[in-house]
Amino acid sequence: MIDSVDLAFTPALEQAKLIRDRQISPLELVQLYLDRIEKYNPQVGSYFYIAAETALADAKTKTELLSNTQNPSELPPFFGVPTAIKDLNSVAQMPCSYGVAALKDRIATYDDGIVTRMRMAGFIILGKTATSELGSFPYTEPPGFPPARNPWNLDYTAGGSSGGAASAIAAGLCPIAQGSDAGGSIRGPATCCGLVGIKPSRGRISYAPIGDVLNGIATYGTLARTVADAAALLDVMSGYTTGDPYWLPDPDISFLEATRQEPKQLRIAFSTGLAPFGEAAEICQQGIRGTVGRLEEMGHLLEPVSLEIADLVEPFKKVWQAGVTGSGIPGELLSPLNRWVGEQAGSAGDYLQAVAQMQLISRRLVAFFEKFDILILPVYLHQPIRIGEWAELSPQETLDKIINWVAPCPPFNASGLPAIAIPTGFDTNGLPAGIQIVGKPAAETTIIAIASRLEQANSLPNGCPPLFKDKEISV
Asked: Is residue 474 part of a domain?
């Protein structure tokens, strides 16, 4: 008998191998996660919708196929592995609410392109993970839904807007998931929950069948327990679809293969803060300093830098605000905060001027990497907030709090540069802390290779939060 807790927290690539080796079936694995979701999701709020019936049907089909397959090594890379889809994405015959309570019963009629790619890779979809309303906020507390809580300390947020995906993985309610990031919405939840999160370069992952999202600041990406899992899912999700407004050539090696590569000596910049916001909290700075020390031991060239992004704040904010009105969802269906955000968006001319400013500033950000190979920064400037901590603030006060928390993330959405968040330790509240590694344009393989080396060096207890151990569920 396989220990159920160990299996629930086993990386997805290892689960796929267990299935191919016939040590466990897709049906057993799906049933394990559905049992855990039934027990724990009411506490943690990871899922808006649980697709138990379709997941079990898919698992039964795949289990039968596995038993009749002579050469399991020829099966897709994640054959039979459970996953979940963020509720900003369409999965045919499942609800797609965008975190808007009034749309809870709206059923999607098609699969988004990334969902198709994930199905082709063999994944089984357990359900739809929680998101902030319209994906607007870095915490996941949409009106009409339970909040997505941090499995390491339920009083705190799992982050946002991919908070449900991150909390699901951290709580052992799925092994791996996709998310999306328009200003830190993958990197933030990954760091809040002690995971790896990859925001790839602009154009790496198609938004098919729809087109551009917020002038390219948004991208899909991956959340996982290990760098290898996150990289392998990026391999699955990446690639051009006919008509995409942005696209990149495939890398010379796979992203999974990059985790096995030893990087050459790199010039690495780092900073423990960001002007005009100041220094990050001490726990965030500790993660930077520890990472710098390990990279120096590996033989890389480290240099402290000062970064100034004051002129990016207003144009980025204007583009982000336009996302509310651009959603096409009537304001009366939205929370007061999102309605207020949409009211600040201004005219189409205001938006286009903001885009032009943002692109000009992005040239400076990308030029920074003419001297350096990668940049090490905090993900957020302080640790996760408590559930409901900002609920009584005015919209303007809330926006100011958000900007002063997530400031290190949006510059790399604006510029389209790749970034990966990795965990570095825990604070006194038992909450994970982490850093982000930013790379040159289209250089995901470099930051993945460095992240993999750091993962090995850190040897962090990326295990099971104490509240989510359950020996009663057997496999």
From this structure: no
